[in-house]
Design brief:
By secondary structure, the chain is α+β, with helices and mostly antiparallel strands. It folds into 2 domains: 35 residues, no CATH class; 102 residues, no CATH class. The protein has 5 helices and 6 strands; from the N terminus they run E-E-E-E-E-H-H-E-H-H-H. Strands 1-2-3 form a 3-stranded antiparallel sheet, with no helix packed on it. Strands 5-4-6 form a 3-stranded mixed sheet. A hairpin with a 4-residue loop joins strand 1 and strand 2. The protein starts with 10 loop residues before the first strand and ends in an 11-residue tail after the last helix.
C-alpha cells in the first residue's frame, strides 16, 4: 500500500476491524518512512457495473462520486456522514444484486432520489431539483405541490345517504 503522504510503499498495520456488515475490512496503517497514519478499506472486488449516461457514454460506478453528490445535497443538513455512507452501500448492493453489468444513469438517479426522500426532505428537494432538470419555475412549483399533496392525509369520501 502506497502512503498517501510520502508515497512510500511500506507500512505496518496498527488495527484491523470488520465493517459494513462483514463486507469490508478497515485497516489503520502507519507509514514506515514518514510515520503518518492513514486508513484503508479492503473489499471483495465484484464484477464492475457500468453507468450508461444519457449521451451513451459508459463509466464505472463510482462510490466516491455518489458520496460527493449526496454530501452536496445534504450540506448544512442534520445528516451524518455515516448515514450517507450507508445510503451509498445500499445503492451499491442494490446495483450488484440486479446482476447486470450496466445500469442506466436514470435508474441510478431514481435510486438516489428515493434514498434521499427517506433520509432528509430538504436534501431530497435539492437533489431532485438538479436531477430532474427543471426548465422553469412552473415545473419546480408543480413538483413541490406534488410533495405537499403527498404529505397531507387523504380525505375520506363522504358516504351518500339512502
Amino acid at each position: 500500500m502506497k502512503c498517501p503522504y510520502c508515497q512510500f510503499l511500506e507500512d505496518k498495520v496498527l488495527d484491523s476491524r470488520v465493517v459494513r456488515d462483514g463486507d469490508a475490512i478497515k485497516r489503520r496503517r502507519e507509514c514506515l518512512k514518514c510515520s503518518r497514519r492513514y486508513t484503508t478499506f479492503e473489499t471483495i472486488v465484484e464484477r464492475r457495473v457500468l453507468v450508461v449516461k444519457k449521451d451513451g457514454r459508459r463509466e464505472p460506478f463510482d462510490q466516491q462520486k455518489l458520496l460527493r453528490g449526496l454530501e452536496v445535497a445534504c450540506r448544512k443538513r442534520p445528516v451524518s456522514s455515516g448515514a450517507l455512507e450507508e445510503v451509498v452501500d445500499r445503492i451499491e448492493r442494490a446495483l450488484y444484486d440486479r446482476g447486470e453489468t450496466e445500469v442506466q444513469a436514470t435508474v441510478l438517479g431514481e435510486m438516489v432520489v428515493e434514498e434521499l426522500r427517506k433520509l432528509d426532505p430538504v436534501a431530497y428537494v435539492r437533489f431532485a431539483s438538479v436531477y430532474r432538470d427543471f426548465q422553469d419555475l412552473s415545473q419546480f412549483q408543480a413538483f413541490l405541490e406534488g410533495l405537499r399533496s403527498e404529505g397531507k392525509p387523504r380525505a375520506s369520501k363522504a358516504r351518500k345517504g339512502k
